[in-house]
């Protein structure tokens, strides 16, 4: 064998070892995520209540009309949710495609978001964003191995993740009914404020409604942003309402930080 052959074999061995390490770490991460999801769903309270018009008493007018529009009489209260998502994620000055599976529990409020972001061909970053047991966290791992993003549990992070849960309740709107932990305050004829407290965390968002009695926007002036350890305005947009399992929900959504520097 000549030197080039030895080098080629060495490179091949290194590549095989790296692939092996990535596969082992992927298995371990999958197992951890599976455990987090199972724990989330196991602790979810099972309600047998059904929606009636009486549930809307005392709510601000736009909230009442929205819930009356998207829910049908007799609709069972939702206890857990599983969503499949695909979209684009803006990172490092470019848009990256992602696919995700997200699980929610309603009581107690919680979620596990398990996403794969395509950074380069055959190179993905696995992102796990969650709020569970009153604690929020985020972790991103290149090829399920190298940590490239992390936000550990803190009072600020807990409230930020609870705000995400609250904004996404448009996908399981019985969670927005009275008695589900959310307090509603009227703002104007097209806006109401929702506040949710859970353990030590609190989230408060403005919900905006259109003339079709749909939630089209949620907003807060101060959501914790772990990248720079600051509080920044944050907005979510929703559209394309369609009926799924008897409930009207938006099939398209977009969220953004409203930063001074873009």
Automatic annotation (TrEMBL):
Instruction: List where the protein spans the membrane.
Output: 6-24
- Provide the alphabetized UniProt keywords: Membrane, Transmembrane, Transmembrane helix
Name under which the protein is recorded: Uncharacterized protein
Task: Say which species the protein is native to.
Answer: candidate division MSBL1 archaeon SCGC-AAA382A13
Organism lineage string: Archaea, Methanobacteriati, Methanobacteriota, candidate division MSBL1
């Amino acid at each position: 064998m000549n030197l080039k052959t030895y080098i080629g074999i060495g490179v091949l061995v290194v590549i095989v070892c790296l692939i092996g390490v990535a596969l082992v770490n992927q298995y371990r991460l999958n197992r951890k995520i599976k455990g987090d999801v199972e724990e989330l769903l196991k602790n979810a309270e099972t309600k047998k209540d059904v929606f009636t018009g009486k549930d809307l008493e005392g709510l601000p007018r736009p909230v009442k009309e929205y819930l009356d529009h998207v829910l049908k009489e007799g609709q069972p209260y939702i206890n857990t949710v599983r969503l499949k998502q695909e979209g684009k994620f803006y990172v490092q000055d470019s848009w990256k495609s992602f696919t995700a599976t997200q699980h929610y529990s309603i009581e107690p409020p919680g979620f596990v978001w398990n996403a794969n972001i395509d950074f380069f061909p055959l190179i993905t970053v696995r992102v796990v964003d969650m709020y569970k047991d009153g604690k929020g966290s985020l972790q991103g791992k290149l090829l399920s191995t190298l940590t490239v993003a992390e936000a550990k549990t803190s009072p600020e992070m807990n409230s930020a993740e609870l705000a995400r849960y609250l904004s996404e309740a448009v996908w399981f709107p019985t969670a927005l009914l009275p008695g589900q932990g959310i307090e509603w305050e009227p703002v104007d004829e097209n806006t109401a404020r929702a506040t949710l407290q859970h353990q030590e965390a609190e989230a408060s968002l403005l919900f905006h409604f259109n003339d079709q009695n749909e939630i089209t926007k949620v907003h807060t002036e101060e959501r914790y942003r772990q990248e720079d350890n600051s509080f920044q305005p944050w907005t979510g947009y929703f559209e394309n309402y369609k009926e799924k399992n008897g409930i009207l929900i938006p099939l398209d959504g977009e969220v953004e930080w409203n930063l001074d520097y873009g």
